[in-house]
Every structure is written in structure tokens, then in C-alpha cells.
Design goal:
By secondary structure, this protein is α/β, with parallel strands linked by helices. It has 8 helices and 4 strands; from the N terminus they run αββββααααααα. The longest helix is centred in the N-terminal third of the chain and has 19 residues.
């Protein structure tokens, strides 16, 4: 699927461009909502930040919103900032506490987030972006097994279940009847187990 994001790399580092990072976050959020359905209206989307232990989503204390905390590598390099922010944008459609405080993401949600990040990175002009962690490579490969128009199938699943990580085996099989059952089982299991 082709994604179009209007963005031009500036001369300054990402951590020196908070307004541009926020603008990019809003563009990514709009794209994700167009592809996968509306963001949870009860959860505010807040400005991204850069932290030592990023990337991940940080929920607000009242769980009424969330924001992306990106890595320090992303703070100084636009392709990494874009990749990480796109990934976290998927989780920010309906942020919830992650492992070990909550259910966190399934292999399906993480695979979708990786796939979306790659598509966004290629759209903005970085054709060389690679998945660096093997667990995320596996998540992307598992997600890709649902076949067809991956993003449309993900949207169908979310529209039925409400949250990507609430999908059941039957939900995967309903949109992709040819996917092997053991793949569907893995996709709906916790990414952290």
C-alpha cells in the first residue's frame, strides 16, 4: 500500500525541532486514522519526546492520553525519528498500559506497527530503512502472512474488535481464511510472552 506524507527533512536535528516533530505526529496520526479507523476519542494525543530508554508509548497518569517517547538515536537522526514515531503512532490510536502493567501489544499489533513504519519511511524518502531487532522482524513477517491488502485487513479487524491487540483467532481467520491456524494463534498472543 502506498502512503503519502508531506514532509521535508530540515537541516536541524529532530530534538531541535519540537514543532516540526509535533506536525509530523499529527500527519502520521491522520494517516493512521484514515487507514485503520478513528483514534480512541477518550485518549488525547500529546507531543512526542526523546528519552534514554525509548522508543515506546507513555500513557498519562489518568490513562486519558499518551505520547511517543523516542530513542536518543532518533533525537539526532531524522530517518530513525520518522520510523520510531510512525511505529508508536499505531499504538497511540488507543494507548493502553504495556507489559508488565497491562496487556500491552499482541504480535499482530507490533507487526502492523513495523509494517506501517516501513511504509511511512519509504514514503518520506528513506528506502534503506531496515528492521534492526529480530523480534520485530518476526512480528512483521507474521503480520504479512495475513496476505492481501494488509492495512485494509488490519482495519477490518480493528473495526470488529475495537483494539488491534483484542483480536482473537477467529477475527484473523475471518479476514484471512487461508492463514494457517498456528500463525493466527501467534498473531493474537502477547508480544511479551
Amino acid at each position: 500500500m502506498s502512503i503519502q506524507i508531506d514532509f521535508i527533512y530540515p537541516n536541524d536535528r529532530p530534538d531541535q525541532c519540537p514543532d516540526l516533530m509535533w506536525d509530523l505526529q499529527l500527519k502520521l496520526d491522520a494517516c493512521a486514522q484514515q487507514l485503520f479507523g478513528k483514534r480512541n476519542p477518550n485518549k488525547a494525543l500529546l507531543r512526542p519526546d526523546f528519552v534514554i530508554d525509548g522508543p515506546h508509548v507513555r500513557n498519562t497518569l489518568k490513562l486519558d492520553g499518551g505520547f511517543a517517547e523516542l530513542s536518543l538515536n532518533a533525537a539526532g537522526y531524522w530517518p530513525t525519528a520518522i520510523y520510531e514515531l510512525a511505529h508508536e503512532t499505531i499504538h497511540l490510536l488507543d494507548p493502553r498500559p504495556g507489559h508488565p502493567l497491562g496487556k500491552g501489544a499482541s504480535w499482530f499489533e507490533e507487526g502492523l506497527a513495523v509494517n506501517f513504519s516501513l511504509a511511512v519511511s519509504k514514503s518520506i524518502g528513506d528506502q534503506s530503512i531496515k528492521i534492526s531487532h529480530s523480534k520485530y522482524k518476526i512480528a512483521n513477517q507474521l503480520f504479512s502472512r495475513i496476505g492481501g491488502n494488509l492495512f485494509h485487513r488490519a482495519m477490518e479487524i480493528r473495526s470488529k474488535t475495537g483494539h488491534f491487540s483484542d483480536a482473537q483467532i477467529s477475527d484473523i481467520m475471518a479476514v484471512s481464511p487461508k492463514v494457517p491456524r498456528h500463525i493466527a494463534e501467534k498473531l493474537v498472543s502477547s508480544f511479551y510472552s
